[in-house]
Amino acid sequence: MYSLFIIVCIVLVSLTSLCKSDQDVNAAAALARQVVQDSGIGTMLTLVDSSVNDQFEGYPFGLMEYYAEGCDNVDSGDLLLFMSDLQINARNAHHQNQKVGFTIRALKDYNKPFGNQSTPVQQPRFTLLGELVQMPRSLRKDNMKCFGQAHREAIFWERFHDFAFYRLEVKSIYYVGGFGGINYIGWIPLHLYQDSSNHIAFVRQDP
């Protein structure tokens, strides 16, 4: 019985050694920026305002949204969104624009498979928390040029007067790199996320 216990311990130690990752918070920050650049789609999260539904005031509300990144000279990882002011997330944010979240998950394989195949839970996903700021109409043409490069179909929405551009100014990031112990999980300091020069090499695979 004692010998079996020793064998099990040795196996567990060996597996831990094999699964050990060099991914620290710096690598996680760089990978988060890479995922933001590659994805272009996520779920926007706002708090329901009483003007939208007084029965569920204060509840979290989420819907899929397109975004574009790298649309300003700073390149800080903020998101550019183009939304109708009639939709619920925009209406909620008009009342509580300082409490907005945006979740993004990897649409490609960035981490090596654990086992015979890769699954979504093995890949990075994270939530950006920040403030939603409506962009001035004077920047609409420049914003559409950048946003339209990421989402060609959105160019058609330009003719709708209820659409406006918004920037999600990121204030904080919570990151899950995959399985705990193998990948970094936790808060990423804002300055690491905003540092666009913080790049690492990735082995990326098409889905």
From TrEMBL:
Alphabetically ordered keywords of this record: Signal
InterPro entries per the UniProt record, alphabetical: CREG_beta-barrel (IPR055343), Split_barrel_FMN-bd (IPR012349)
Position of the signal peptide: 1-21
Organism domain of life: Eukaryota
Annotated CREG-like beta-barrel domain residues: 25-193
PANTHER family according to UniProt: ADL397C-AP (PTHR37273:SF1), CHROMOSOME 8, WHOLE GENOME SHOTGUN SEQUENCE (PTHR37273)
Protein name per UniProt: CREG-like beta-barrel domain-containing protein
Organism, as annotated: Absidia glauca (Pin mould)
Gene name in the database record: ABSGL_09198.1 scaffold 10691
